[in-house]
C-alpha cells in the first residue's frame, strides 16, 4: 500500500510518518512538502520516506507529485495553520488552504486516481458555539469567526463536494487542538513551554507573556492524533466527517498552571495585548463518539504527559 502525506515536514506530518514507519510496515510512505523544506524540518523523515517537493500554490507540481507516487491513501495535512495571523493575511490563507486543496483534488481527477483521501479539517470551522451545544457534535453548523476558520470550513465542504460529485473517497477529520513535542511556539502552550525553558536557562527574565487564559479548549496528544489519521484511512466511511478530540474541556489557564507546576523556576504572568485575537471562541470542546464507534480509536496519553514531553523538548532545544 502506497501512502502519500502532504505537509510531511510539518508538526503532525513528521509524527504521522514516524507512526506509519514504526507500526505499519505494509505502508510505503511518500511525503510531499515545499521545495524549501529544510533537513531540520524533515527531522530524519526524508531518510524514512520517499520525498517529493511540491507546493499547494503550484498545481503542476502537485500533478507531478501524484503522478510519481500514485498513492492508495493520501493524508492531506499541508496548510497554513495559524489562527492568530490569519486576520493579517486572509487572502493568502484562503489561497493556500482552499485553493491549494482544489489543486490537489483536481490533480487526482486529471490522473484518474481515487485514493482514500483523509483531509485535515478543523474544529475552528464550528466558530462560536452556544454553551448548551458543547461538547460539539458533527451536526453543529459551521460558523467560523476567523479567516483561518473560514479556510478550514471551505476545505471541509470541498471534501464533501468532491465525494458527492466525483465519488472521491474522502474522509474529513475535524481536529480539535493537539499538542506535544515539536509543536511550534506560535501556539499558546508551546509558547509557554519555550518561555519557561528559556527562563530556566537564564535566557530571559522570569516573566511569561500570555494571551487570553480564560478560553476553554480540547487538547489531544499529537501521537494519539497520528494514530487517528491511520485509523480514519482504514476504517473511516468515505464521505463521512469525524471529530478527533479528547472530549475533555480545559482552560488555557489550567494548561499554564500545569506547565508552571513542572517548571524549576518561579515566574510572573503578564498579559500581552499582541497575543489577543480580534475575535475568539470562548468555549470549544468536542464529542468524539462517532469516530470512536467507527474506528475503535481513543486518546490514551494524558494532558500532563503531553505538556511534560513538550517542556522537555523545549529544554533540549534551548
Throw out a few tags for this protein:
single chain; 318 residues; alpha/beta; Rossmann fold; UDP-galactose 4-epimerase, domain 1; 11 helices; 42% helix
CATH-defined architecture of the largest domain: 3-Layer(aba) Sandwich
Share of β-strand residues: 15-25%
In whole angstroms, the N-to-C terminal distance is 39 Å
What is the CATH C level class of the largest domain, in words? Alpha Beta
In order across it, which strands form the biggest sheet?
Answer: 3-2-1-4-5-6-11
Radius of gyration: 19 Å
The tally of domains stands at 2
Low-confidence stretches: none
Instruction: Name the average pLDDT.
Output: 93
The largest β sheet comes out as: 7 strands, parallel
* SSE pattern: EHEHHEHEHEHEEHEEEHEEHEHH
Give the overall shape.
globular
CATH topology of the largest domain: Rossmann fold
CATH homologous superfamily heading of the largest domain? NAD(P)-binding Rossmann-like Domain
> What is the count of DSSP helices, taking H or I runs of 4+ residues?
11
- Which structural class do you get from the secondary structure elements? alpha/beta
Report the count of strand segments. Answer: 13
Amino acid at each position: 500500500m502506497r501512502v502519500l502525506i502532504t505537509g510531511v515536514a510539518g508538526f503532525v506530518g513528521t509524527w504521522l510518518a514516524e507512526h506509519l514507519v514504526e507500526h505499519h510496515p505494509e505502508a510505503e510512505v511518500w511525503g510531499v512538502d515545499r521545495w524549501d523544506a529544510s533537513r531540520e524540518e524533515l527531522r530524519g523523515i526524508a531518510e524514512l520516506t520517499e520525498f517529493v517537493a511540491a507546493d499547494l500554490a503550484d498545481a503542476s507540481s502537485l500533478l507531478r507529485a501524484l503522478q510519481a507516487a500514485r498513492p492508495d491513501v493520501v493524508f492531506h495535512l499541508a496548510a497554513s495553520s495559524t489562527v492568530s495571523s490569519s486576520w493579517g493575511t486572509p487572502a493568502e490563507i484562503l489561497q493556500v488552504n482552499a485553493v491549494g486543496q482544489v489543486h490537489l483534488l483536481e490533480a487526482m481527477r486529471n490522473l484518474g486516481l481515487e485514493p482514500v483521501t483523509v483531509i485535515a479539517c478543523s474544529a475552528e470551522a464550528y466558530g462560536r458555539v452556544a454553551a448548551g451545544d458543547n461538547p460539539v457534535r458533527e451536526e453543529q453548523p459551521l460558523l467560523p469567526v476567523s479567516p483561518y476558520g473560514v479556510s478550514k470550513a471551505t476545505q471541509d465542504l470541498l471534501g464533501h463536494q468532491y465525494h458527492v460529485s466525483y465519488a472521491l473517497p474522502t474522509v474529513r477529520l475535524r481536529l480539535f487542538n493537539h499538542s506535544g513535542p515539536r509543536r511550534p511556539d506560535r501556539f499558546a502552550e508551546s509558547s509557554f513551554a519555550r518561555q519557561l525553558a528559556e527562563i530556566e536557562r537564564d535566557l530571559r527574565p522570569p516573566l511569561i507573556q500570555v494571551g487570553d487564559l480564560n478560553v476553554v479548549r480540547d487538547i489531544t496528544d499529537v501521537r494519539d492524533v497520528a494514530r487517528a489519521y491511520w485509523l480514519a484511512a482504514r476504517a473511516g466511511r468515505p464521505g463521512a466527517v469525524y471529530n478527533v478530540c479528547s472530549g475533555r474541556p480545559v482552560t488555557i489557564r489550567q494548561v499554564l498552571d500545569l506547565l508552571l507546576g513542572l517548571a524549576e523556576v518561579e515566574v510572573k504572568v503578564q498579559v500581552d495585548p499582541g497575543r489577543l485575537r480580534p475575535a475568539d471562541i470562548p468555549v470549544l470542546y468536542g464529542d468524539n463518539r462517532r469516530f470512536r464507534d467507527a474506528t475503535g480509536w481513543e486518546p490514551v496519553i494524558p494532558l500532563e504527559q503531553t505538556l511534560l514531553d513538550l517542556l522537555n523538548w523545549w529544554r533540549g532545544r534551548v
